[in-house]
TrEMBL record:
Belongs to the KHG/KDPG aldolase family. Keywords: Carbohydrate metabolism, Lyase. GO terms for molecular function: 2-dehydro-3-deoxy-phosphogluconate aldolase activity. Its EC number is 4.1.2.14. Homotrimer. Pathway: Carbohydrate acid metabolism. This is 2-dehydro-3-deoxyphosphogluconate aldolase/4-hydroxy-2-oxoglutarate aldolase. The keyword Cytoplasm does not apply. The keyword Lyase applies.
């Protein structure tokens, strides 16, 4: 397994918020609100022009939060993200070229997979922790159970359609080490700058995971 592992990174709060940030100010306030609610890692996705600047700002202004990058699709994005200070790397997909670039950084990484062929490619590269995305659209926990029965050495982080309502069914499966989602950072709360509400949603998520016995 690659070291450091992604599961080690999120063992204290095995939930990975997916943050689409439109401004540095939002990124800093949201990160503080998440951390206050008990979530210690956050993934800022490359879906806005300021994403890399947001990573830089969170590293500087919210150093207690472990911040990484998501939606990586090219080796250049990997290089740029590391330069911006990303502490972990997440991709929605897996190719040998992209995964190799991610591996070379030495950072915890999570490539996206949904099929046996993609998982086999990950294993050929020494990767045993993968993102399952988009989770609900590809069959959710039922598909993960089927994949885990064949690939028992692989651990999954389902993302896409995961919510407080279905956390239990995901974490009931031992092949799942974390989940990703954005339900604790809804767009309306960010638009209204309701950081306390984001903290409350984060607390609820962590409390639910503790109840399931899945926090270190």
């Amino acid at each position: 397994m690659l070291k450091p592992s992604f599961s080690d990174l999120v063992k204290n709060s095995p939930i990975l918020p997916v943050l689409h940030m439109e401004s540095i100010e939002e990124a800093v306030h949201v990160s503080r609100a998440l951390y206050k609610g008990g979530i210690t890692c956050a993934e800022i996705v490359l879906r806005s022009p300021v994403a890399l600047d947001c990573i830089k700002a969170v590293r500087k202004q919210v150093p207690e939060m472990t911040v990484g990058v998501g939606t990586l699709t090219t080796p250049k994005q990997v290089i740029d993200s590391v330069a911006a200070g990303a502490q972990f790397l997440v991709s929605p997909s897996l190719t040998r070229t992209l995964a190799t670039a991610m591996i070379k950084t030495g950072l915890p990484m999570l490539p996206g997979t949904v099929s046996p062929s993609e998982i086999t490619q990950a294993l050929e590269l020494g990767i045993t922790e993968v993102k399952f995305f988009p989770a609900e659209q590809y069959g959710g926990i039922k598909t993960i159970k089927a994949l885990a029965s064949v690939f028992s050495q692989v651990k999954f982080c389902p993302t896409g359609g995961v919510s407080l309502d279905n956390l239990g069914e995901y974490f009931a499966n031992d092949s799942i080490f974390a989940v990703g989602g954005s339900w604790m950072v809804p767009k309306d709360l960010i638009a209204n700058k309701d950081w306390d509400a984001i903290t409350l949603l984060s607390e609820q998520a962590i409390a639910a995971i503790h109840k399931l016995g899945r926090c270190a």
